[in-house]
Amino acid sequence: MKTLFVNARFIDENLLTNDIGVQKWHVHSKYKSSFNLQDERKQQLVVITTTNYPFMPNGIYLDATDFTNLLETVEINEQIIWQQNSLHFSNEHLFLMHGKPYSSKIERTEEVLTISLEKLLSYTNTVAKETGSQNTLANFVKVGNLFSEAIQYLCLEEQSQQESGLDFLIGRGPGLTPSGDDMVVGHLAARILLKEENSTLINLLTELLTEQFLTTDISKHYLLCALSGRFSEPVRNLVTALTTNSNEEEIAHAAEAIMSVGHTSGVDLLAGLITTIKFYRSK
Fold this sequence. Notes:
The protein is α/β, with parallel strands linked by helices. The chain has twelve helices and ten strands. Helix 6 (159-169) crosses helix 8 (199-211) and helix 7 (179-194) crosses helix 12.
């Protein structure tokens, strides 16, 4: 078999700043437009995809042709050696040093503008796309349900109430990233946006994810990233839109980009984010 040499186009800077050294990884899962790598200790995931998709935490992005060629040869559970700035598959070598770094971290410096936030709330009141809880987003944010009540428990100060909210949400729902998990990611993004981070909740969720198998590996990855303030490009773009004087079209475009992710993942994330924002605005 011909040996394939591929260069990354873009890479999450977090993968470059961590001193990975020499580690054993493996192909965790494989899809039509991406595949995931997992480390030997099963604590980290890396997504490899094409430059046609938005930047995600721990992402490595390739030109479409290079990605297609690589995807055809890699196999699930295939062993990989990660050595400094290169990944060595069975018959392929992926070099990271030429990839342009990007940040997946939300940098909160500006205040949320009420005028932009009102536009987002007005827009989401009209969205008919369904969350994983089988409510439209519009109904989810207007009418109480078990999922929205659990999100509100996360907003409270009492540890027992936060535990109750996490117990209901984590791992609840079908798919690679269950709906309850996506809502928690949205909740954590809203807390950063509003400067309402809570160390008790962060510690509770971190402990749950590291000590128990409550959800999928992929969902665990995005929850852990959210705990460290790292989110997808569409989420970060919405944060930017809410901290600048954005018009209705810009707000709608940012929200729609989030909702386009997955079957219901993006809508669920937005539901968690909006429910959290509305809770703190009502205080």
